[in-house]
């Protein structure tokens, strides 16, 4: 017999119905606590990020990119440059550092390394041209940049930095004819810290290197080096047979390639701690022009760099030849003119090692084969030799060099015959126009360089051709010769 169901008691009903009602405030309180904790965490992360950004921004030091002229500063655009961009990278050997490991501070600085980096307009490539610090040139006058002023004159390219980065910019622009849009200067400690923040870099040496002056002792073969070792490897002279500035440029190419490879292949860009350490090390010892003074400017530049494949990042040394006045120093070779012209035109630099065998060209008998003499009337040491190399690169036949009486204006003296006149007319065009042609006796052509010629050098347009230069792409196997 089925027992009748007992209706629930009011007390039982009140207990069951009261349980959810009592837990509801607790759940709401728990949700509020979670939301509050999340909010505090988000605010904390944002605040930490803002502090980090403020810290990094505070690290950046700026300096003028142009020396003042007559008390007026050359205007610098606030917006980052668009299109093709040319950046001068300066490694300073200043000893005004936290550590005295590199010697006593004597208040001077020079460019221990100089790289002219060209970013193509379409971000398809980066050409990084190393400029030998021992390059002799006619340095331009440089007005006060906060470190003094100079009337210019013959000297080594690296000495311009002693008067500030603006003077280095002016010297490189005069040497290359390339307009510099930005500069980045870094000292020894900044370089060491940057490499250490990457966790070191991988290099490969064909033979062991020892240099007591640079505190370098590395075995042959592939290996990982820290920041101090990487700096010593890039700077060593005494470990090399030639003990010259030129000899060490190959090691600098390897070190630069290793840094680019490590920065792009490691997790430094996705690990906040590593990214901050890398940026903090880089910006702590960095001086830039006002156009790169904000972190957003540097981030925009970094974004452009990141778009370029490693295979299209090329390091090459400026083609050089021993200086006529000092065989222990160098001057640009004829191929350097082709390299700088390619940068100005924003076209790829064709390397002889990569070029197919070229068909031998027959020069125009009426123009290119006419004997040409280059005479130095500018009073600038070695100018006639350098210009002769450039003119040969244009296809002309240079039969000799000479000195001439000092003159302010460049002129061309051509014989009365049609061949000489045709050569003179062609040369005027190739040298940028505006050069007076005078008719003289004889049958040859004489190019007399005046004091105005160094300022005209950028107007000379050299056609592209394969150049012979020490080079490597950033994706090259580090153990490849």
Question: What can you tell me about this protein's structure?
Answer:
This protein has two domains: 85-352, Aminopeptidase (3-Layer(aba) Sandwich), CATH 3.40.630; 371-458, Alpha-Beta Plaits. Strands 1-12-7-2-3-4-13-21 form an eight-stranded mixed sheet, sandwiched between helices. A five-stranded mixed sheet has the order 17-16-20-18-19, covered by helices on one side. A two-stranded antiparallel sheet has the order 5-6. It is α/β, with parallel strands linked by helices and 481 residues long. Helices cover 35% and strands 21% of the residues. Helix 1 runs parallel beside helix 6 (272-284). A hairpin with a 2-residue loop joins strand 14 (320-323) and strand 15. The protein is built from eleven helices and 21 strands.
Distance separating the two termini: 102 Å
Which value, in Å, is the CA radius of gyration?
31 Å
CATH architecture heading of the largest domain = 3-Layer(aba) Sandwich
User: Helix count, per DSSP?
Assistant: 11
Tally of DSSP β-strands: 21
For the record, what CATH class of the largest domain applies?
Answer: Alpha Beta
Structural class: alpha/beta
Domain module tally: 2
Uncertain spans, ≥5 residues at pLDDT below 50?
A: 1-20, 39-49, 69-81, 359-363
Mean pLDDT: 78
The major sheet is characterized as: 8 strands, mixed
**Portion in strands:** 15-25%
